[in-house]
């Protein structure tokens, strides 16, 4: 390794956990004071250190601490930070041109990304895509397209669902704090129905799929009227709601209902997509082929890009000029996406995600057996979580969850929390993480759990 590559981030960064100062260290504390003076309070911080370099399975801070990364910037850097093909392609594009506005003068990388999306998303029907900047923007546009296609207005979403922070997507998002509180009024014609959350289904997990689907369908039928529904939007694994894997059978029943009633079925795969769950898309697990699929995060290795992909006739329902935005499908982000998708194929990242599950899940399950505060272990591939409860029952324990995350951070392991009740620790390592780091991260977690 040359001195030059050692100084850069990306895969060349030393793959080790290293805690050399208190967390946060002095340089991070200094920067934090500047952040507090210049950045709006609304922008929170999970781990109060400042990043300097990141790559492979680690993130290094300005004080020289190196954290094992179990967060991937919330499921974004699945190919690792500054992945070689992402950097190479984005750099080439930067040198050619940075922006023309795809609606003013188009360019090939935009078309290539849409061609790739047609290939990698489920179903072999004719597909088209439109590109945007953020996940929320993709979801908003999926709603616009579904409304234009059906001539209907209502949108159905689910308990524990998360779809973004813009006005329409706040309405679609279920959790008040911190996403919605004091930010209303919200967009109308949004309806929320139950989801099959096995761990917390009142009658137990056995009949959860059937009962939840029956309740959801009953509510749609009685309270909205299927003929008024443009779209049903669901995350095949609910991310911010707590990594809830809907009980098997629930998603197909909801999709069937949508199909029977001319409702556009939208899978929001912004967090679960692009190899994260061990398949290219989480909805493949039950063989679902959504009408529309929203993607972002993992698509471009850290560059801002999002997409709506779906049946060509539905996608073409919006009139020419009806969709777009100044930056949507920015050429550098598109080039990065092509590098990201190339990496996913070359390294077979769905298989890597499945391997991460093989390593992590048994250890998490063993930990849950020993610990009376871990109520549930769930997830698929490299989208795994533990739900923390008060001993002896199922009462959520957000305090223990925050304390556990903090203890991990202190020891050089970056984990994120999630969940409607704030009581879930989630694990989203980059899919390229080394197995030694994965195991070392789990060692840190186990120690932190026993120290609670
Ligand atoms: N849909 C399923 O997971 C983003 C949000 C973090 P944007 N999830 C992380 C936070 O606190 O803001 C997300 C998602 C699903 C939509 C979105 C929204 O994607 O790119 O953050 O707009």
Automatic annotation (TrEMBL):
InterPro entries: 4NH2But_aminotransferase_bac (IPR004632), Aminotrans_3 (IPR005814), Aminotrans_3_PPA_site (IPR049704), Class-III_PLP-dep_AT (IPR050103), PyrdxlP-dep_Trfase (IPR015424), PyrdxlP-dep_Trfase_major (IPR015421), PyrdxlP-dep_Trfase_small (IPR015422)
Cofactor: pyridoxal 5'-phosphate
Keywords: Aminotransferase, Pyridoxal phosphate, Transferase
Source organism superkingdom: Bacteria
Reactions this protein catalyses: (S)-3-amino-2-methylpropanoate + 2-oxoglutarate = 2-methyl-3-oxopropanoate + L-glutamate; 4-aminobutanoate + 2-oxoglutarate = succinate semialdehyde + L-glutamate
Pathway(s) it belongs to: Amino-acid degradation; 4-aminobutanoate degradation
Record bears the keyword Iron: no
Enzyme Commission number(s): 2.6.1.19, 2.6.1.22
GO terms, molecular function: 4-aminobutyrate:2-oxoglutarate transaminase activity
Keyword rRNA processing recorded: no
Similarity section: Belongs to the class-III pyridoxal-phosphate-dependent aminotransferase family.
Protein name, entry field: (S)-3-amino-2-methylpropionate transaminase
């Amino acid at each position: 390794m040359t001195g030059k590559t050692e100084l850069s981030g990306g895969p060349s960064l030393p793959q080790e956990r290293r805690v050399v100062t208190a967390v946060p260290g002095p340089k991070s504390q200094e920067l934090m004071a500047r952040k507090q003076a210049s950045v709006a309070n609304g922008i929170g911080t999970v781990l109060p250190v400042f990043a300097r370099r990141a790559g492979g399975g680690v993130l290094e801070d300005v004080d020289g601490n190196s954290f094992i990364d179990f967060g991937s910037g919330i499921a974004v850097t699945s190919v690792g930070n500054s992945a070689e093909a992402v950097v190479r392609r984005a750099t080439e594009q930067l040198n050619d041109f940075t922006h023309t506005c795809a609606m003013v003068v188009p360019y090939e990388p935009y078309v290539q990304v849409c061609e790739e999306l047609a290939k990698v998303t489920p179903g072999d029907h004719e597909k088209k895509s439109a590109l945007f900047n953020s996940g929320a923007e993709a979801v908003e546009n999926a709603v616009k397209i579904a409304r234009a296609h059906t001539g209907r207005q209502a949108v159905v979403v689910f308990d524990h669902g998360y779809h973004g922070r813009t006005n329409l997507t706040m309405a679609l998002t279920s959790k008040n704090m911190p996403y919605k509180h004091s930010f209303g009024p919200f967009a109308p014609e949004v309806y929320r129905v139950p989801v099959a959350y096995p761990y917390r289904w009142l009658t137990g997990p056995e009949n959860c799929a059937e009962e939840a689907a029956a309740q959801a369908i009953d509510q749609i039928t009685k309270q909205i009227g299927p003929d008024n529904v443009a779209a049903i939007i669901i995350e095949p694994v609910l991310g911010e709601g707590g990594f809830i894997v809907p009980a098997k059978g629930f998603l197909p029943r909801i999709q069937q209902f949508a199909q029977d009633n001319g409702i556009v079925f939208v899978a929001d795969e912004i967090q679960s997509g692009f190899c994260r769950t061990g398949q290219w898309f989480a909805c493949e697990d039950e063989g679902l082929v959504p009408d529309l699929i929203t993607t972002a995060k993992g698509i471009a290795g850290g560059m801002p890009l999002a997409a709506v992909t779906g049946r060509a006739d539905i996608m073409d329902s919006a009139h020419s000029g009806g969709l777009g935005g100044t930056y949507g499908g920015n050429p550098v982000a598109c080039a990065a996406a092509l590098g990201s998708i190339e990496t996913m194929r070359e390294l077979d990242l769905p298989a890597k995600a499945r391997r991460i599950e093989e390593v992590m899940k048994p250890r998490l399950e063993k930990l849950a057996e020993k610990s009376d505060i871990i109520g549930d272990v769930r997830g698929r591939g490299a989208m795994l979580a533990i739900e923390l409860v008060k001993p002896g029952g199922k009462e959520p324990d957000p305090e223990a969850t925050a304390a556990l995350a903090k203890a991990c951070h202190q020891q050089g392991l970056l984990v994120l929390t999630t969940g409607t009740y704030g009581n879930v620790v989630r694990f989203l390592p980059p899919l390229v993480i080394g197995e030694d780091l994965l195991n070392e991260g789990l060692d840190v977690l186990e120690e932190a759990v026993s120290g609670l």
